[in-house]
Structures are given as C-alpha cells and as structure tokens.
Write a structure and sequence with these properties.
Oligomer: single chain
Protein name: TIR domain-containing protein
Number of domains: 5
Largest sheet: 5 strands, parallel
Number of helices: 40
InterPro entries: TIR_dom, Toll_tir_struct_dom_sf
Strand content: under 5%
Pfam families: TIR_2
Radius of gyration: 31 Å
Distance between the termini: 67 Å
Structural class: mainly alpha
Number of strands: 9
Shape: globular
Length: 704
C-alpha cells in the first residue's frame, strides 16, 4: 500500500501545481523514501523497483524546479539527496542483479541514459548535481547485466562528461558527481562494443594523464575509479594497443609513490591490486612466459591477491568480492597460466584453487542465470582455458581423475558446447580459445586416464613412411611449399588436406597415430600456441613418436621453455642453412631410416567402443539398459523416469533417435515430468546433457 501511495504521489507532480501543493507532495515523498530505505534501496526491493520504474517521468519537472533557487528547489534537492544516499554502496548492483528479465533492465537504462543532458554538465552552480548523480547511478548499474552499443548513448555524452571530469576531478565539492561519472565509464569500459568510442573520445589518454599529474592526489575514490577504467580497458585487445602506446605500465609505476603517500594503507592496498591486475593484462605473453617472472615480487604479490579474490568471489551468490567479479580474476589467471612455473606455484600453494575452479565450472553448466548469459559464457570459456593449461601437467592428472563430475562436465562441453554458450563473445580476450576447442584439448591431454591400456593394444607395420606435420599457421606458406615437394616421395598428413569434419582433434589424433615421424616446424608462434603444445605432448607422451624439428629459411627463433625442453638433443634441420632441395632430401633420409621401426598405433576411443558394442544394442535386455545408464554416469533419477520404461535395446535406440531429432521439445517434457515425479525437484541441465550425450554416442555406434 505504501508503495502505491508513493508512486501515486510521484505521478501527481506537475508544473501547474501551486508552490504549496508541490512542496507538500515532495515532502511526503521525502518522508516515505527515508522511511522505506533507511539502509539503502535493498531494504525494500519492490518499493525500489517501483520508484525506479516511475522516477524518470518527473525529471523534467524537477529540472524546471531546480533552475531557480527557492523553496521548491530546496525541497526537491532534499528528496534527491535522500535518493542519492539510498543508491550508495552495492545496493543498486544487488537490486538490478535480482531483476531476472533483461528486457526490464534495458527499458530502465534507455529511460535514464536519454535524460543525461549536456546542460547539466555545463552548470557551474551545482544546482543539478544531486539530480545528475541519481541519473548516473541508475543508468550505470542498470546496464551492468545487459549488452549496449554506441547507438544507445546520447550524442557527445562521452565528450561533455569528460570535459566536466577534467575540470572537476580534484574538486572536493563535486567529488561524488565526478565519481559517478567515472563509475559509468568504468562499466562502459568492460563492454567491448563501447571500447572504440571510449578510445575515440580519449578517456584512456585522460586517465593516464591524471595518473601522472604531479602534486597531491585527488580523493581515494577518484584514484580508484581512474585505475578501474584502465583495468577494464586492458581486457580488450584494441585498448591494450592504445594503452601500451601511451606507456600505461610506466604511468602506473610512477603514480605509486604519491598514491602511497596520500592514501591510507588499506586504500593504497586496494589501488595497488587494481594496478597489479592491469600490469598483468598489459604485459606481453612472451614476457609472462619467462621463468624469471616469479623472481619479480610485484608479480608474486599479484598472484597472492588474485587467488584470494577468486576464492572469496566464488563463494558469493553474486560472484563479487571487494567490488571484483570472479571473471576479473579468472581472465588474468588464464593469461598468467601460460607460464608453467606460475601455474605450478598457484596450484601447489593453494590446495583450494583446483576444487574452486571445478565447482565454478560445474555450477555454471548446471545453473543458467538467464539474465546474465554473457557472464556464463565468459566464465565457461575462461575456466575451460584454465583447465586446458593445467591439463598439460602430469601432476594435475590425478586431480582430474578423482573428480568424476568434472570429467563428465568436460566431456559434455566437448560434445555439446553450443548448448552452454550463446556464441563466442567479444568480452573474452582474443588469446583464449573457444569452449569446444579448450574442452577437446583437456580431454586429449587426459586421454591416458580413460584409456590406460591403449599403448599395449595394437602394433602394425605400415606399407610406406608417413609423416605428420605439426606447425603454427604463421608458417603456412612454408608448410605448403614443403608438402608439395615431399608429397612426390612419401605420404604426408597435414591438417589443410586431411581434416574434413568438425572433429578436428580426433582427425589430428588419427594422423599422429598413423605417422612414422612427426615433423615440427619450429617458430616463436609454435611455442605460443596451446594447440601446438597439445599435439607435441600427445605425440611424445601418449604415442611415443619420433619427432623431427625443422626451421623455415628465415627463422631466427631459439627454442625455450617447454618447447626447448621437448626438443633438446633432437636432430634438427634448418632450411636456412642449406638449399631447400638439400634440406628436404635430408628430411627424407631421416624419415626412411625411421621406417625400420615398428611403431605403435593407438586406436581411438570410438573405435574401441565400436568393436565392443557394434550391432549388439538391439539385443539388450532391461538389465543391459540399466548397466548402460550406470556406465555413462547418467543420474539414477533419469533411469527411474525414462530407462525403467524401456524394456529392450531396440526401444532405447528408437528413443535416442527421437531425442536427437526433437531435443528441445523432449527437454521441456522431461523437465516437466521430472518435477512432477520428484515433488518439484528441478532437473539439472548437466544431468540431462549427460544423458543426451550418451544417447548420441549410442546412435553413432549402432549406425557404424
């Protein structure tokens, strides 16, 4: 009832009212607002949302009343100041996070962004400051969880808001307004589609200039938000190039001494962490890969804080800790994990980290927060890339092996990645691979866990030498020239000729399994590529293949890190130190010598399964069906709901084919039946996809 009365009063305001009537209504609004929100807008969410849904309507009236200093403007400012206080802290973030309908948030954003007039920012008398602060707060936090583009912004808003900030960034009187502007730019800076316009309006240039301005620093909040903007921009490849051109890292380091002097220990520690993350995002991958980086106390400090943020944020419903979203930590960690020593240090010094990452992955494949799909996409892609880096290390394999649910999730992501993410999103850094590629990579690295006896399975002679070429696409022209020449003399497996399906990793595995020798075209880019590392690890560790490193004619790279260790002591051929013909002939002679060996050929998982199960499914009994459910880790509730009614293998196959054709309809039907059968219990997405994946594989086996 109180909410309705408040909204009715709000709507009743008009410019035609007498001064007394207007003041009486606004005073009533002021009292009700203060009573409903003693500790912020979260105190009463329905009230807060009703206020926000209607407040924009009376902004033109408030603007008119504020244009003159009188009793009406004084009363209006009292109300606006109370609303401004209610918007402080994390109250608006949590309020808008609770809104499950993204279209509702889009409407709120559009209603308020359009009201941010240039005149408000040209005012030197502070008469509109409370009004603008309220508009900025609602505008900024409402767009946290929705996509926006340049077309959604008022013309020149970024220009006149920057001019205002340049003029007032050290002003005590207008500090709060300045910080709400910086907060909005910080939020915009995390949205890749807005980064180009932010750069065009030279916000990065201004932030770096503010960092290096001599003399006393502004307020803690102003310095904090300047650093936040640079940190958000550093996530985007386009902005990284600009920030490095502006010597951002140097400016961060130079600003530290004055900030440490002007802010207390706790405040400086917070700023230092944001600057550390920015530093890590801006550092080149080659520098991160150098092992001496761990001798850098600055970097060790980053790691310690970073892991703490990830662990604490992952325990929160909103995934926030000290204003950091868990994705902030995950993205930086994924970049740092290209350094093997950093990865080992983090996992060995924090026993909780692997389990924390596992639980996050499981959580975001079974719970889909529909209003923030981009958060789910970003977390899943970043997590799978982190696990891909981890899976290269033998010491981690036991952790994977002991975590059954994690392995099921990774298998599902590999086979059904499109069911989990909307698309390859722009907010994910370019150096991260797609969800499917990363999941496939993990499973390939862990192949020996699932197939412990494969190396003892089959040995066979081959009729002619076969080489497989592993290379980075930076060397594709040299690779094409080499393949064209060598193909005259022996069989060659190379990706651009042999890969014909979407099962890229499976086809690469088959090529390696058949090859006598794996030829590596060594380059700096080969060293930087997770895919190339994956191929070499599989060839050496799982298959025990002979490798032959070669160098393109102009290649000056000296192998280091994991690649240097892998090829140390190996015979190599450099095509720049002799004629192409002589180098190619030397390669041919090495391959033909290797032909004398009898090489192991590892059958793929699918082939083994096909041999064991081919043509047998139709003959299954009910006990066989139950065994199949158990072996594929399908939830027992689904057997009770579905499997218990399938009496023959033929019936199971027909159902699997039906499920494949009518997946979405069947999901809705099974979810509904599941809820009825188990007293309102919700069917977990990961459980259903585990079932779908098993059915698809069963159909594939039978078809073959």
């Amino acid at each position: 009832m109180a909410t309705n009365d408040f909204v009715n009063d709000l709507k009743s305001l008009s410019l035609s009212q007498s001064e007394n009537v207007y003041i009486e209504i606004v005073q009533r609004l002021f009292r009700r607002l203060k009573s409903a929100t003693p500790n912020g807008l979260l105190e009463d969410k329905p009230f807060a949302l009703s206020l926000i849904d209607n407040f924009y309507r009376i902004i033109p009236i408030f603007e008119k009343k504020l244009s003159n200093k009188n009793a009406e403007s004084h009363t209006t400012n009292l109300f606006l100041e109370t609303l401004q206080n209610a918007c402080r802290g994390v109250s608006l973030t949590d309020l808008f996070y609770s809104v499950k309908d993204p279209s509702h948030l889009k409407i709120i954003f559009q209603n308020y962004i359009s009201l941010l007039k240039e005149d408000y920012f040209r005012d030197d008398n502070n008469q509109y400051d409370h009004l603008v602060t309220c508009l900025l707060a609602i505008t900024g936090f409402s767009c946290l969880f929705i996509p926006i583009t340049e077309a959604n912004l008022p013309s020149n808003f970024l220009f006149y808001s920057l001019e205002f900030t340049k003029k007032n960034w050290k002003s005590d009187e207008r500090d709060e307004l300045v910080n709400y502007i910086l907060t909005l730019i910080k939020i915009f800076s995390k949205k890749p589609l807005l980064v180009p316009i932010i750069i065009r309006h030279q916000w990065p240039h201004a932030c770096i200039q503010w960092l290096t301005t001599s003399g006393q620093r502004p307020s803690f909040n102003t310095d904090l938000h300047i650093c936040y903007i640079l940190q958000k921009l550093a996530r985007c490849a386009t902005a990284v190039e600009v920030l490095n051109e502006l010597n951002c890292v140097k400016s961060l380091i130079e600003s530290k001494e004055q900030m440490k002097k002007d802010h207390n220990e706790k405040e400086y520690s917070t700023i230092d962490f944001i600057q550390s993350i920015t530093y890590a995002l801006l550092v080149e991958s080659d520098e991160i890969k150098q092992n001496f980086l761990l001798a850098d106390q600055f970097m060790c400090h980053i790691l310690e804080q970073l892991i703490s943020v990830i662990l604490h944020a992952s325990q929160s419903d909103s995934l926030l800790y000290q204003c950091f979203h868990v994705t902030e930590g995950l993205v930086v960690l994924s970049k740092l994990f290209v350094n093997d020593e950093i990865l080992k240090k983090c996992l060995k010094e924090s026993n909780q980290l692997f389990d924390c990452l596992s639980q996050l992955l499981i959580r975001f494949t079974s719970e889909i927060p529909l209003n923030i799909q981009w958060v789910q996409d970003e977390i899943l892609i970043t997590l799978t890339n982190l696990f891909w880096s981890i899976s290269f290390h033998q010491f981690s394999h036991e952790k994977f092996q002991s975590h059954t649910k994690l392995m099921i999730v990774l298998s599902n992501l590999s086979t059904s990645s499109s069911l989990y993410t909307s698309t390859r999103i722009d907010s994910v850094p370019l150096d991260l691979s797609s969800l499917k590629k990363a999941a496939d990579g993990i499973l390939w690295n862990l192949e020996s866990l699932r197939l412990p006896s494969l190396k003892e399975k089959i040995y066979q002679d081959q009729q002619e030498p076969l080489i497989m070429i592993s290379y980075s696409h930076i060397d594709k022209m040299f690779c094409h020239e080499l393949v064209e020449h060598l193909s005259q003399y022996l069989s060659i497996w190379v990706d651009y000729k042999q890969i014909k399906s979407e099962n890229v990793w499976e086809e690469i595995a088959n090529g390696m399994e058949k090859a006598n020798v794996i030829v590596l075209i060594i380059s700096k880019e080969y060293y930087a590529s997770k895919s190339c590392r994956q191929e070499l690890s599989y060839a050496c560790d799982t298959l025990g293949k002979r490798i032959l490193p070669i160098y393109a004619p102009n290649q000056q790279y000296q192998p280091n890190g994991w690649l240097g260790i892998r090829i140390a002591g190996q015979k190599y051929i450099h095509f720049g130190k002799k004629s192409f013909k002589d180098a190619a002939n030397e390669l041919l002679s090495v391959v033909h010598v290797e032909k004398k060996l009898i090489l192991p050929v590892k059958p793929t998982i699918q082939n083994i399964v096909k041999q064991e199960e081919k043509n047998s499914v139709k003959d299954w009994t009910k006990n066989d069906i139950q065994k199949w459910f158990d072996e594929n880790h399908i939830h027992r509730d689904l057997f009770t709901l579905i499997g218990d009614h399938l009496l023959t293998g033929s019936a199971l196959l027909h159902y699997a084919q039906h499920l494949k054709q009518f997946y979405r309809h069947e999901y809705a039907q099974v979810s509904s039946n599941y809820s009825k059968k188990f007293d309102g219990k919700q069917l977990q997405t990961v459980d259903f996809i585990t079932f779908v994946d098993a059915c698809e594989r069963l159909c594939g086996v039978q078809k073959s």
